[in-house]
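In response to reviewer comment 3 from the previous cycle, which asked for concrete evidence that the modeling workflow produces usable outputs, we include below a single protein chain processed end to end. The sequence was submitted unchanged, and the resulting structure tokens are shown without manual editing.
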Amino acid sequence: MHIDLPEKRYYKIGEVAKAFQVNASLIRFWEKEFDIIKPKKNAKGNRLFTQEDINNFKLIFNLVKERGFTLDGAKQKLKKNPDSIYDTQEIINRLEAVKAELIKIKNQL
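The workflow returned the following structure tokens.
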């Protein structure tokens, strides 16, 4: 899944939800369920997500929404062998970028 977010230091919950095409409530729920997501909060209590949080959301989204893991299964997978998941996700991200570039070239022809 290609996430279209501008390069920023912090992202608001609405931006993250829109990028993943989910409700903000799901983002809040995953934040509570998964320890790897730790957004900062401003004085008002609004969540501010870093790029690392976005990458962790990509992993969780891939496991739960795309590969069909249960929440408990995704938690176990992340705890059991997190390095292999990060490597796999990095490969997927690179392949999606190549695919997007090829589609762009195809459309220009």
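The chain has a mean pLDDT of 86. We consider this sufficient to address the reviewer's concern, and the full set will be provided in the supplementary archive.
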